[in-house]
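User: I'm new to structure prediction. If I give you an amino acid sequence, what do you actually give back? Let's try with this one:
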Amino acid sequence: MIERREQGTGSRVAIEVWADLGCPWCYVAKHRLEAAISQRPDADRFEIVMRSFQLDPTAPQGLEKNETSFVRSHPGSTADDLRRAERQMQAIANKEGLRYTVDRWNANTFDLHRVVQYAGDQGRGFAFFSAVQDGFFAGVLNPFDPDALVEVAESVGLDGRRVRDIVAGDEYADRVRADRQEAVELGSTGVPFVVFDRRVGAPGAQKVAAYDQLLEQVAGPAPSERAS
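Assistant: Good question. You get back a string of structure tokens that encode the predicted 3D arrangement of the chain. For your 228 residues, that looks like this:
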């Protein structure tokens, strides 16, 4: 259940986003949410907090083709089923100005989520995850390569050596698992799952207009102009 509490006028609003790297709808939803926030004059009131949710904890550590991953995790489905769905997602993403390659590789995302937890402690969780996911769907980044993660981490202001140590160890493992469990307890059956100020939960990829309404619900109408 979502805990309901009063939101003071003008106060900070935390928006928690549960997502996984290879989830296409998470990719689209993330950008729609950012668009809804950015069009408000008080956009700086909102803090997006990245939370972990592994869709396929049993995925192998080694790379596997997108088609192989889909068929393995969706019994009864075929590679053709995935290709049709991917072309549809590509059209949706491209229409919204997002790069989207259908030729992707997948692997277990647990280590990535552990780095996201560290990045969150540094106030860079969403920035880090967003940069990794954007590069992944654009087809220009292998997020399962520790060197690539280090490079992205440093680009958003994180300590690359710290990231390399985390990937090599098992830090933050309990927190990754706890995040997923918390999402389930809040009512999530999958991702994307967005919780606004612990007052309203929004499952699935909502339209920009819907996110805008949710922002207004928890933070009030957008002011007519940005305060100086």
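You can read the tokens as a compact description of the fold. Here is one thing that stands out. The first strand starts at residue 13 and ends at 19.
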